[in-house]
Amino acid sequence: MLRAMETIAFLTEPAPPYGEVQTLHPRVRRVVARNPGPFTYHGTNTWILGAGRVAVIDPGPDDPAHRRALLDALRGETVTHILVTHSHQDHAPGAAPFAAATGAPVLGWGHPQTERTVGIATGHPPFLPDEILAEGDTVAGEGWRLRVLHTPGHASDHLCYAVEDEGVLFSGDHVMPWSTSMVAPPDGDMAAYMAHLRRMLDRPEGTFLSGHGPPIPEPRPHVAALLRHREEREAGILDALAGGAATVEAIVTALYPALAEALRPAAAKTVRAHLLKLRAENRLADPAIAL
Q: Which end of the chain is less congested by CB atoms within 10 angstroms, N or C?
């Protein structure tokens, strides 16, 4: 029998005014891309850090309307850095054209793994930043300084950016307020994702600003709930296997009995990510299950 899952208190917000700049923190503004969907909520948050000489985090999809909105929001200011949290199609493709429009360099993890499928969809070009960032690096601008955290799991190249002395962390898709993060092998790695969720429990910042959705004002309880959800989902998978489920599809049916058909492929990817983790930990009674 499958055990009951704890309900996460997700944070939501009304659909934002697309194309308009919003101040959500004293030194941080937001422009939301018009790319709503089941994996992007109302759209991708593009964050502007600082004033006068600014950093832009996650320019989003390659959308001319969103790019014009960003440029309008920054009229009279200078973009000194363009930072990308990860290479998925809703975060990175807008970086190169925005760099061409502003002259600013693009920074990110930038270690393409050709043997893996990077991104939610296939077919978009690899993300190749001008400057490669790694764990512990710092990026400084006028009145702000970021420290880089490499947080693989949702994507192998995922970075978070902590704003020193501001109590703010840009969490990308690693920690989101409105939903759990999809972890899709081969680029997504559930063991890494859960390990870096635990790492977030020790962060000192009082506000997380995500790639989608509103600010997270009390991040530690939220992160703890996300981690418990994954642990409970893992226990549910083991229960389903013990009950006779022998395929990923059967486990999805057992775990998500009322799931919309359009969301089953994403659920299957997450289940597969958990199974790969369980197999690596020698916790599968039947390691021969097709993955």
A: N
